[in-house]
Amino acid sequence: MTRIGFGFDVHRLVPERDLWLGGIKIEHELGLLGHSDADVLIHAICDALLGAANMRDIGFHFPDTGAEFKNIDSKILLRKTIGLISEKGYKVGNIDATVCAERPKLNPHIPAMQVCLAEVMGIDPDNISIKATTTERLGFTGREEGIAAYAVALIYKS
Predict the structure, then answer these.
(1) Are 101 and 131 in contact (CB under 8 A)?
(2) What is the model's pTM?
(3) Mean per-residue pLDDT for 9-15?
(4) CATH superfamily placement of domain 2-157
């Protein structure tokens, strides 16, 4: 049996925070604000995986009220998410994701993101598609107030 899930996340850009996307640190004058490291790409992927397995969402499993999740590396949350779906007998087929940001330019970082995420999920980097786009300076992402990410995940019973 195969199942598909969809995930979405957004975080505000602020000074004096590191910018983490797809599990890697990217040099930028602003970073994402959140209870964890605020990696919107990983959070969207987690929601897509959990949704596909009908296991609610990232906030249900890793609440932002939990002290144990304060400033946590989102790669840990992704690894735990893989464990959760594995308990139901699912494996990851592939991920297709899009990150919406005006700056910094993300295309040079996509291969490193794919390798990092593949290692965390235990899948081939070729099974992770990451695209970057702008919103043509429209909306909160266009005004560089935040970054949004969308993800679709295919999972299957092993």
Answers:
(1) no
(2) 0.97
(3) 98
(4) 2-C-methyl-D-erythritol 2,4-cyclodiphosphate synthase (3.30.1330.50)
